[in-house]
Amino acid sequence: MQVFSVLYLLSRSPVCEAYVVRRSGKARSSDESFSGCGFILLYTRIFFCISSLSGSCKNRCFELVESEPPNCRCDNLCKTYNTCCSDFDEHCLKTAGDFECSKDRCGETRNEQHACHCSEDCMAKGDCCTNYRSLCKGDVPWLQEECEEIKNHECPAGFVRPPIIMLSVDGFRASYMKRGSMVIPNIEKLRSCGTHAPYMRPMYPTKTYPNLYTIATGLYPESHGIVGNSMHDPGFDANFNIRGKEKLNHRWWGGQPIWITAVKQGVKAGTFFWPLDSALKDIDKVIGQLMNGLKQMKLHRCVNIILVGDHGMEEAHCDRTEFLSSYMSNTEDIILIPGSLGRIRARNSNNSKYDAKAIVANLTCKKPDQHFKPYLKQHLPKRLHYANNHRIEEVHLMVERKWHIARKLYESKRNHGKCGFAGDHGYDNKINSMQTIFLGYGPSFKFKTKIPPFENIELYNVMCDLLGLKPAPNNGTHGSLNQLLRAPVYIPSMPEEVCKPNPVGPVTALNDDLGCTCEDKVSNRVFLDLNKSCRTVCLSRNLSLPVVLLPDRGNTQLGRTGTQLVVGPAQVRISPSEPSRTEQASTSPHGQHCNRCVHQPTRWSTFPSNVVTHPPPPPLESEASEVALCHSHSWSAQAGSRRVVTSCAPGRMETPSPDGPADFKLFQVELFASPETSHCQLFYSLIEGTLSSDALAHSWSWGLRKYAFPPVSLLAQTLCKIREDEEQVLLVVPYWPTLTWFPELFFLVTAPLWQIHQSRAVLSTAGVGAKAVSLHP
Hints:
By secondary structure, the chain is an alpha/beta fold. The protein contains 17 helices and 28 strands.
């Protein structure tokens, strides 16, 4: 696995002394040496291309200060621009003596040919190997220290605020973190002692250049213009690829990366790059060297570390390749950018016969086992944010994971008939294997904290906050990651209400006739069944259920039906008021609503205007003694109780038999108190210890019996997750006494919003218990 890494060092210090891990091995050609990092290319905006080679690199290796002409350069970009000083390799690419001290080297006589030193004077000269203090002077290595909560930064004189070191590892799939401390002990310590997310979602396409530049700018690829590792710009008729010189032209790069933002506001910035043809252990070793070096320089309580990946990785092979020649009679008139996704354009831009719509039509549903789906780019899922750029071709092929697309057979195996890869990336960014990592460690990050997953466009604003910078315009939501910071800098404010939530008049329903001939998938039987079940529960338990009462389909004005929508922080319901249009409707949460439970929803042009709010009702007491599996920290929920879930603590499933479904008699809930609590649904297994995780983040392994407790709104995604991981799971969901509604429920939570309307609220709030349903992939 080839891994590329990027390191940023950002500081407000007027003097920035940098110690870097140097790239081992011989210098590569200019086309090879920096072929994996999109961020470095942006230095074409910062530095001049220097033609003169006068000067020396002695005491200048990897300097962070720009060298003006006619001086030569000694930074890591000089190989790319062919502007290195003649002695750059001699001084800056030393590999002799390796990069760490050994017992034999402690106290050695200084050898200037060594990459780092273990002599007695190395601390004074600032060129010790990173393990010098721990190996030769008896200090405790960083890895062996206990987790330390750094409440206040401790920086040497000259630092205005803590600097940031960001490391990006190419292809670091989120699930690699499960290797644990036996394989990646240094990375695992960063994770456990700092702030981390189960995964970070990359942007589509999940390729290196688009995502590294998205992290640097906070922009979607369609916004910053780097829409792929290879692309064509029809405006200036040029091609971009990661090994060509055209990538050095600033015209390709839009937006403002973090290092430009920093330099413009007086903050020093630098980027470093080194390739590693190695596995996770070597990456972890480099990070260990970094942390030991920071401790040796007394910067380990000063620097903020951010470790991320650009995307994940998926198994792939040439044998799993679709060929357009099997679907199209003529592939000579098109250019296909092949691989884990496909982009098609006309070979001749003046070809009047090229018809993108016809190509999509001819490639759609042609084979029962077709492993790609064609789109016009404007029809791609909007969540991908991959249409609004002229560099994105009109025809786009979304390829099934583990598969590739190619134009012809010979194009998939050009290496003497051999397949040149065993894995790839670029697939849909919602696929688990495409997710990558986020770890934050340092004085500005919270201690031992886990945050929900997020998208990588959010990191730019975080870096700006940590450095005291004003962010350039970007696609992120400023303040959305405040939960990972010890002291958030930017506190978003909400606009004040311009009007009170009082009834202002009737709301007119839209005509349900949309001009379609599609069969109405929501049958009246669904609602009749729901009504029957709801009334049965009401009458048998004599309870005031948190059901939603929807207006009759025939009545088009809420004002005339006397129905009022009541929205509270813990429940959603529509309660009938008195027929008088002038009398204030009751907001009592405990009225009896068994006369009318559910009707087929009416589509409204706007959200009902007669909305009032009230606080959640007090919980009802219950004489039942069974203790529920999920409970808040302030009370112990019991079977039959009606509570609001404010937080969930882990609990272990004690009684269910793995042989079949069982009624777990879980407590009733009105509604989860906040969006956050809907993510606290836990997974339980019959093995010792509690296995808990976000329903959408956990990767299940074989051989373990597990139980899923998703909120109904996440039911469809959980089912897809179960099938995707090919696992057998007992799914526990809210239910009415009979399970006949379950297929209809599954349809309702996956149907288009206009078909569901308020009935989603019914299904998410009207549970009176739980039933385990055994699902088999």
